[in-house]
Specification:
heterodimer; A: Rossmann fold; 8-stranded mixed beta sheet; 14 helices; 12 strands; globular; B: alpha/beta; Rossmann fold; 2 domains; 4-stranded antiparallel beta sheet; 33% helix
Chain lengths: 397, 384
């Protein structure tokens, strides 16, 4: 089976594949997308939802990047721009070295190389199309494959996602949610893409089915050398599937780090709160619970957008810099960047003052063990101490 | 027991039992007595069966469910969609869709009274006042054309006959109890003017308005964002301590179970397959289904090399397999050489330890074997 799929992969390339030397498949730089809204009269002052407001990251070959965040953080808008469904207002998105979203022919050439799997397989498949036709459509539109060759490819694709070739004759309603998601994956694979955007691929599925789909995605990635952009709100899924994670909050990327490091040593107070919110275990330190709701992206808070809900801001006595200055992206550890004025404080365990309704005596320095995983004790090294001092100096001025 | 009304010195206590002439339901026990395991459960469900007539045939949505809920305790009712957990909740309150769904047998004892034997009129006095319900989506639970203040006041008006200024006072008190900032202004707001987290707090205020003994929460945080969900769960826990509530928490999320629940009831295909304390369930799951399910869910706490997969999918509710309903997907059944017993006899809940019951013919074998991380189940073989 494996050799058949690999053979198909080589066979159905219509043109020789340009080999990107650098290893970066996709580069997103300072991308901005605002949606204007307001009364529909020309003289009215328009406001804008700052859905994505300066986001940069890159995805290497065969890498999985996860974007996590709560509703309104801009993760789906970012994905839509990468798919070419929305044009960015500023910044650039480069796929294999050339820019997407500006020029017609280039855009069309990329369409087939970047594919998508959406959250809800009940709405992403046309109920009146047979499964085989749904998988064939991208091939019919974009290639000259027809007849027996087309049927062979559909059979191979269905087999690759764990369905029998007979499934091609059935309609989507005859399948369960997990099977439909497999069909959606087969359709995404039909044009032999390099990058697949997975927008919440398992959250609509039953708990016992999720593992099947997640393992399938992992296997296909290895087999077909795919890169994934995973959009998810469930941190456990992200931890399982990704190599790198970007955490977004109100249109900004607040932290970007290798997955293992992000979970063991989060450097942004929001990331720690998200991890605490998703943790099942009762720890010896009370979990951080954020107060209030997510502010509207149409009217984000000044300075650091997270400061209105930030536990560290409260713990540090509400430093002015958080309210006035947008924190720049700084590299706290190699490949680990974060946008927080007090990143090194954030990497220390929270003290009692930060924990809502908790007893300060409980959360002493001894209560740190679960957060700090095994690894080099980089926190106490010289470079970081310097980084920790710097913002404090700025406050004293 | 601290009730919000006592703190405020309200003239009409929230638990104004005498006024309504409700069915004889015992009031709360003396607050000074310590709740212990010996105390009779507030809610006891025995062999509950709710069947639904559908086009596809008879759906045995709830088909023999037993569990108990004690004062001050949170019991998690866990299962996949179609396992019957929500229909169990609706059946307890007799809110199941009628006439399609019928409770065909069983008892639902609330403080000793069988709710299934009450008249509809008597039942109305139990709902909201003694047993309250929070549903998943606050936007559908709230009425868009009434202000949230009116909606919070309604149960208080009906069950406790408060009127005028004292009704407004109670509404404000409840908004404050649910930590809603600026209650005077929020009272006049309509649901669409509030955020998702705030709406679910309003639903919480309605549910707790008459200081019920039992709260049934059906996936109350599924529609909320992660950090808002965490805050809501903390708030529920805090209110539970203050009001000494018994909570039946329905969820499919083991993360929420780990945070909230003291005991867990696991359902599969209309039946309870396991009940255990939280710690026991996570450390020594007793049913092959629970065992496999816990290994098929990734965690944030530690990296997972490869998830276990459970073959197949849950059976359709109209066509449960004979014998043990999990056997077509069961790893232990395969491991034990497909014993005939699993195909022919429905396993009953049996005690496997203190506070632990498992419905499996081979419960003793579960701990001795491990599910195979078999690649045979996977669509594409992992390249070596």
């Amino acid at each position: 089976m494996r050799s058949r799929l690999t053979a198909l992969r080589q066979g159905w390339r219509s043109e020789p594949q340009p080999n990107p030397p650098s290893g970066d498949l996709l580069t997103v730089r300072d991308v901005v997308k605002h949606f204007a809204f307001g009364p529909l009269v020309p003289w009215a002052k328009k406001r804008a939802v700052k859905a994505v407001d300066g986001v940069s990251f890159r995805i290497a070959q065969q890498e999985t990047l996860g974007l996590v965040g709560e509703s309104g953080c801009g993760k789906t808008t970012t994905a839509r721009m990468i798919l070419g469904l929305l044009a960015p207002d500023a910044g650039e998105i480069r796929f294999l070295g050339s820019e997407i979203g500006r020029h017609g022919p280039a855009k069309r050439r990329h369409r087939g190389r970047i594919q998508a799997v959406f959250q809800d397989p009940w709405s992403s498949l046309d109920p009146r199309m047979r499964v085989g036709d749904a998988i064939a459509e991208p091939l019919v539109v974009n290639t000259r494959v027809r007849g027996q060759e087309l049927r062979d490819r559909i059979a191979a694709l269905l087999e690759a996602v764990g369905l029998g070739p007979g499934a091609a004759r059935n309609y989507p309603h005859e399948f369960s949610g997990g099977q439909r998601q497999r069909i959606a994956i087969a359709r995404a694979l039909s044009l032999n893409p390099d990058l697949i955007v997975l927008d919440e691929p398992v959250s609509a599925l039953d708990v016992s089915i999720r593992a099947q789909i997640m393992n399938l995605l992992k296997d296909l990635q290895q087999e077909l050398r795919l890169s994934y952009l995973l959009i998810a709100h469930d941190l456990a899924t992200v931890r399982y599937l990704t190599d790198t994670v970007g955490v977004m909050y109100l249109g900004k990327l607040v932290e970007l780090a290798p997955t293992g490091e992000l979970f063991t040593r989060p450097a942004h107070p929001y990331t720690l709160a998200l991890i605490d919110a998703a943790s099942a275990e009762v720890r010896d330190r009370p979990p951080i619970v954020l107060r209030g709701d997510i502010p509207s992206p149409a009217d984000p808070p000044s300075g650091c957008r997270f400061h209105t809900r930030c536990w560290l801001y409260e713990q540090l006595g509400r430093p002015e810099i958080c309210r006035t200055e947008q924190p720049p992206m700084i590299e706290v550890l190699p490949k680990h960047i974060t946008a927080c004025h007090f990143a090194s404080e954030a990497m220390q365990p929270p003290t009692g003052a930060a924990l809502a309704g908790s007893d300060p005596s409980v959360a002493g320095p001894a209560a740190t063990a679960p957060l700090v995983g095994p690894g080099p004790p980089a926190l106490s090294s010289g470079g970081n101490q310097h980084a920790r001092r710097a913002p404090a100096d700025r406050i004293r001025h | 027991m601290t009730r919000p009304s006592e703190a405020a010195g309200d003239p009409a206590p929230l638990n104004a039992q005498a006024r309504t002439g409700a069915p004889r339901i015992d009031g709360p026990p003396d607050p000074d007595t310590d709740p212990s395991a010996q105390e009779p459960p507030v809610l006891r469900v025995e062999d509950l069966r709710t069947h639904i007539q559908t086009k596809a045939g008879l759906a045995r949505a709830v088909d023999g469910v037993d569990f108990e809920l004690r004062r001050g305790e949170t019991v998690g009712l866990v299962g996949e969609s179609g396992s019957g957990k929500s229909m169990t909740a609706l059946s307890i309150l007799r809110l199941h869709p009628q006439p399609a769904a019928r409770i065909v047998s069983g008892r639902v004892e609330f403080n000793g009274t069988d709710l299934l034997s009450l008249s509809e009129r008597e039942m109305r006095r139990v709902r909201g006042r003694h047993i309250a319900l929070i549903l998943q989506d606050p936007m559908t639970a709230l009425n868009p054309v009434y202000s949230v203040g009116d909606q919070i006041a309604e149960p208080v008006r009906l069950h406790q006959r408060l009127r005028g200024l004292s009704l407004v006072e109670r509404t404000l008190e409840l908004l404050r109890l649910l930590r809603i900032a600026d209650p005077e202004a929020r009272r006049r707001a309509y649901p669409h003017q509030l955020s998702g987290g705030m709406r679910q707090r309003v639903v919480g205020a309605i549910a707790l308005s008459c200081a019920p003994e039992v709260l049934i929460a059906d996936e109350p945080t599924t529609a909320l964002d992660a950090t808002v969900q965490a805050a809501y769960l903390e708030l529920l826990k805090d209110l539970q301590r203050k009001m000494h509530l018994a909570i039946l928490f329905i969820t499919h999320d083991f993360g929420v179970v780990g945070r909230m629940c003291d005991r867990v009831v696991v359902m599969y295909a209309g039946r309870v397959v396991e009940t255990a304390t939280r710690a026991r369930l996570f450390q020594h799951p007793g049913h092959p289904y629970t065992h496999a399910l816990l290994r098929s869910v990734p965690t944030v706490a530690a990296p997972t090399q490869r998830l276990l997969t459970i073959e197949g999918q849950p059976p359709p509710v109209t066509e449960f397999p004979p014998g043990c309903r999990f056997h077509p997907r069961c790893w232990l059944y395969e491991r034990l050489g497909r014993p005939e017993l699993c195909r022919t006899d429905l396993p009953l809940l049996q005690a496997t330890g203190p506070n632990a019951q498992v419905a499996c013919h081979f419960a003793a074998e579960v701990g001795r074997h491990r599910p195979d991380m078999g690649e045979a189940h996977d669509a594409v073989g992992v390249p070596a």
